[in-house]
Amino acid sequence: MKFGAIYEEYLREQQDKYLTKCSHVEYKRLKKVLKKCRVGRSLQEDCPNGDQQEGNNESPDICKCNSCTLCDQMFFTELTKEASEIAGCFSSRVQRLLNLHVPSGFLRYIWRVRQCFIDDQQIMVQEGRMLLNYVTMNAIAIRKILKKYDKIHGSVSGRDFKSKMQTDHIELLQSPWLIELGAFHLNCNSSDIDETVGFLKNEFFKNFSCDLTEARPLMTMAISETMKYEYSLTCPICLDTLFNPYALSCGHLFCKGCACGAASVYIFQGVKSAPPEAKCPVCRSDGVFAHAVHMTELDLLIKTRSKDYWRQRLREERNEMVKQSKEYWDSQAMLSMGI
Amino acid sequence: MGSELPAAAPPQPKRSTAAAAVARRRIGRELWQFWLDPPPYCRPGPSPVKDHFHWEVVIDGPAATPYAGGVFPVDVWFPYDYPFRPPKLFFKTKVYHPNIDGKGRMALDIFQDNWSPALTINKLLLCFVSVLFDPLLDRPTNRCIAKQYKHEYEAYEEKARAWTQKHSSTPIVSHYPPYAVIGSTPPAVPHFPATAARRKAAASSASGSVSSSRIPLLMKDESIWRRTMKFFQG
Fold first, then answer.
1. Which CATH topology does A234-326 take?
2. Chain A touched by B22 (CB under 8 Å)
3. Which long-range CB contacts under 8 A does A159-167 form with residues at least 24 apart?
4. CA of B78 to nearest chain A CA: how many angstroms apart?
5. Domains (ranges, CATH) in chain B?
6. Which of A11-15, B1-5, B71-75, B219-223 has the lowest average pLDDT?
């Protein structure tokens, strides 16, 4: 079965049920544009100059093949728009889902009371799986269409666009929210939940696994037998397993203490209090600390999978925080006294 | 060893024991990684690492350079708030190089403004070997040597070889702890593009009007290691 057919079937089955108002890749339409382009190319190769000119006048829809302006306009602007919409939709939906799973403050008590009457856990797992399918299907669709673009045009524009997507932080399979969703999936799997809930007939998503015992802790997502994505759970600063992880807006993960140290702020002030000129230690992008996200599910996963390590790190961070706050208030007192 | 420079420990700021513990753990991991998979031409020093905050590393002079056959011991000092402040690396012997000063320091911007906590000692040593091979002439520490490198390359090469022979020819045996998993030894084939050989080939292919003592630098032919340096410098 071709991917186009699988994707269409997926859209028919799932888009209406769970992902209303969510954007998706217009795979069929973009494929048609490429088909027109291919026809245009063959026309240009076959016809002499005069005929070709006439052909162009008759059908302005067919792209001028050397520059491929139509393709470029249709493709890359459309794909950028779609990818950013999908990324935005995915992140907001995941955020909403995870806020329900790990509520904080007053919501926690409401949630506990609610759980006495209704068991929402299964619905949440189902929605999590739907979101995973949504993001993987769309990511594969983008990947396939870019491959096709490169094949037809004999160019590397598709590959360049892929790397541009990464720099613009709209690469779907590199999103920290996907890691969060994977952690949520693993956290739910560890509790006793009916595994048959929410599986799709044409499910691409097969397996999410996490190994924290190895020298390099990894989370692996296997979309199919051939496609595997590995996400490192090592902090690039302390070179240890992430503890109390935060994702900066560039997508890089750090421990809270490490991120605060890199941004030269106290731990108790938090990652978001970093100055705007503070740069990501890995990619050196600036202004990435302001929209940092606390990875609660990933933290929960690490907490449950390696308890001793988590406790040890918690003790260390608390000691450091106490020391830092003492230092801070001492300096404030001295400042107020004019010393 | 030849004529060694005094390696005084840089003053350490007062830091909390927790911060020092974090630094010690990170340095321990880096040390293990260094034993496991050292950068090309680098290996551990002769004495065992007793203090995590002070290492000794040996850089073997890369082949096809004036430093070939030389053994360069390097002192590595880590601050107590590492990795939030950069380590200090000093060559313990005299090195005739445009980017190395009289105190054995290599002035690179990744040790000052462009330092990032995500950089590891392996990456820094890779930079060291890279610069040793392919000097950064846009910001030299020693202008006289840089000028000589640009305009009288053969004289520079001769002097650098003589200094290497004089100061850095004593062989050093690396010390590996008994429990360390030692990685593969650096290959004999140079990892870096042979700058000197490339320059000589360019000179021979050029017209006879260019004198051999004034070989122009091939600025267009940017090596992969220069690109690596650019990446590290952001």
1. Herpes Virus-1 (3.30.40)
2. yes
3. A161/A76, A161/A79, A165/A80, A165/A83
4. 14
5. 15-181+222-231 (3.10.110.10)
6. B219-223
